[in-house]
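Project outcomes to date are best conveyed with an example. Our students and postdoctoral researchers have been running inverse folding experiments weekly, and each run begins with a structure described purely in tokens. The record below, which covers 593 residues, was selected by the lab manager from last quarter's runs and is presented without edits.
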């Protein structure tokens, strides 16, 4: 492990004797569960279909329909499907097994009755593993979990990955998904892609569909690396891997007084380091995470708590309690529960297990394939929904907004200090972040992908309560709206393409220096826009409509309020300037009694 300039090199041991909270917590989590259901539902086998995401809710509550769905098992079948749809001039969208993206990237249109969904669910084979060149070629529907497992069998590893393994390779590279590092090519998986095969529409002379093979050095691969699904359907991906290695992880808690300075330095000191921030408590957890020699003892496992299975009764109870707190404006209750949740999470190492079974203390050392990503709630037997992934929409569990943006390292300190000012003005406003695991901060490097990151940066991930009623205001709604506008507008943050509310994409495309080159490739590959939709045209700046101005629109992030009616004036929420960022316009609760 590299020595940190910020932290002393200490090892802290956990002591759980008599800790009934710990026992109760683990009893809830360590059970089988029901795997997520198919995101595509059809009324007539594969006809008259609806598609949604894993939360069963797009940001603007769009009902996304398609005339049919296809499930190709081979590249040849994929070519035939796209050729037929191109000949018939039907809109198309690629969809993935679990439909992870929050925005409606997989939606051909709100009411298109002639479109076709192309699912990569069965396009899921490991095509080739070349140990000599350390590359692996996979179908685009292969999951990250599958790739990690198969690479490990031959002593190889993908060095940097997202923390959730329920993503498909095609889906995660198309939206720029990533881990955390400032080393090597960076933390985004798409920057380790050395070859992409993508099937696109073609002329009648070419058979209406063609396979384009893009290799490293071809400028057009930089469009395909983060394609948002608008170029065609990725059939195969070849990734550059490394020899298997071990990692050592230690979480270190500190006060957040110097977070602005420390966050900028920490990423260069630890290869896989990340930060979890609890602004309401002025507390930070730094993940000291580095490679160690492969002969270092340890068979650790990272089974991240938020991705483990949970008893459905507990999920319902927690959600009911949160809704009651919202209805009663019970900030004290939220804050107390947030502290309890954090303490419990830290007590069990946030899911780290020294021997694969339990947490006994830091450091936790293990092979890369066991430490880099997790999602055990997906590996389960059907149990009638007695247990589920915490966000499974079939259970009344977690339902939340996710605001995620990356800010250049040169601007990170200013953003953090502005959020700290907001927290000091009203600490209770930030407690909701503690209920959802805190603000996760991950490091990213500049990418050659046209729609990839433009600078070395930190990505901030804010998860917070979302009401089932789109017109219902949230407790301290203004604080999170101000943070959202601070990140995107004052500090020029870039959106995570697979997350965020509509507001996060306003003007975003203009922040990418080579977006025009991306649009040229898009026009070349799909000249008639069969893989485009209103949504993709809106986020690419080709069409208006990202802002949906109507009563209560600010609560769901469909607009930035400019009128009180965009908030909830009947419930005391009015459109006001921000408290720190005065240019912000947020829905603030004002006591009119």
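After processing, the design step wrote out the following sequence:
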């Amino acid at each position: 492990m590299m020595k940190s300039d910020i932290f002393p090199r200490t090892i802290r041991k956990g002591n759980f004797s008599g800790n009934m909270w710990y026992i109760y917590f683990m009893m809830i989590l360590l059970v089988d569960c029901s795997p997520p259901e198919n995101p595509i539902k059809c009324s007539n086998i594969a006809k008259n279909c609806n598609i949604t995401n894993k939360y069963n809710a797009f940001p603007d509550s769009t009902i996304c329909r398609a005339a049919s769905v296809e499930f190709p098992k081979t590249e040849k079948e994929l070519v035939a499907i796209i050729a037929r749809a191109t000949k018939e001039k039907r809109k198309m969208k690629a969809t993935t097994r679990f439909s992870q993206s929050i925005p409606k990237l997989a939606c051909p249109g709100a009411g298109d009755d002639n479109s076709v969904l192309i699912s990569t669910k069965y396009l899921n084979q490991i095509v080739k593993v070349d140990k000599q060149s350390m590359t692996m070629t996979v179908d685009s529907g292969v999951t990250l979990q599958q790739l990690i497992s198969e690479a490990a069998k031959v002593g190889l590893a993908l060095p940097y990955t997202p923390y959730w393994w329920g993503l498909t390779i095609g889906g995660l590279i198309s939206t720029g998904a990533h881990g955390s590092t400032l080393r090597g090519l960076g933390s985004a998986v798409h920057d380790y892609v050395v070859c992409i095969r993508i099937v696109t529409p073609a002329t009648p002379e070419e058979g209406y569909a063609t396979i384009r093979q893009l290799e490293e050095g071809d400028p057009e691969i930089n469009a395909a690396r983060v394609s948002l699904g608008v170029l065609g359907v990725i059939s195969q991906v070849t990734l550059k891997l490394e020899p298997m290695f071990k990692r050592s992880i230690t979480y270190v808690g500190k006060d957040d007084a110097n977070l602005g300075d420390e966050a900028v330095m920490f990423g260069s000191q630890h290869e896989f380091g990340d930060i979890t921030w609890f602004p309401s408590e002025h507390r930070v957890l730094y993940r000291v995470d580095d490679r160690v020699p492969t002969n270092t003892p340890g068979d650790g496992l990272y089974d991240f708590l938020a991705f483990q299975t949970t008893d459905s009764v507990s999920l319902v109870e927690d959600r009911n309690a949160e809704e009651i707190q919202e209805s009663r404006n019970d900030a004290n209750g939220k804050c107390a529960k947030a502290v309890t949740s954090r303490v419990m999470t830290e007590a069990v190492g946030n899911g780290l297990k020294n021997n694969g079974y339990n947490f006994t203390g830091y450091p936790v050392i293990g092979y890369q394939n066991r430490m880099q990503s997790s999602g055990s709630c997906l590996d389960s037997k059907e149990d009638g929904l007695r247990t589920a992934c915490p966000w499974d929409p079939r259970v009344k569990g977690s339902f939340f907004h996710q605001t995620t943006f990356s800010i250049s390292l040169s601007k990170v300190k200013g953003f953090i200090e502005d959020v700290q000012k907001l927290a000091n003005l009203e600490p209770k406003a930030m407690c909701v972040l503690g209920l959802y695991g805190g603000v996760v901060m991950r490091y990213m490097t500049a990418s050659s992908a046209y729609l990839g990151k433009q600078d070395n940066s930190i990505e901030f991930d804010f998860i917070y309560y979302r009401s089932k009623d789109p017109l219902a205001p949230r407790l301290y709604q203004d604080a999170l709206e101000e943070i959202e506008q601070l990140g995107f507008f004052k500090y020029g943050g870039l959106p995570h393409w697979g997350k965020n509310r509509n507001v996060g994409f306003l003007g975003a495309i203009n922040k990418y220096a080579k977006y025009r080159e991306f649009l040229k490739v898009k026009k070349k590959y799909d000249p008639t826009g069969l893989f485009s939709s209103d949504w993709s045209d809106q986020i690419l700046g080709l069409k208006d409509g990202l802002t949906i101005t109507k009563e209560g629109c600010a609560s769901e992030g469909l607009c930035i309020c400019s009128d009180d009616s965009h908030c909830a004036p009947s419930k005391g929420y009015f459109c006001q300037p921000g408290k720190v960022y005065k240019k912000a316009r947020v829905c603030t609760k004002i006591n009119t009694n």
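Confidence is low (pLDDT under 50) at residues 1-32. The domain at 126-244 is CATH 3.30.465.10 (Uridine Diphospho-n-acetylenolpyruvylglucosamine Reductase; domain 3). The training component of this project remains on track.
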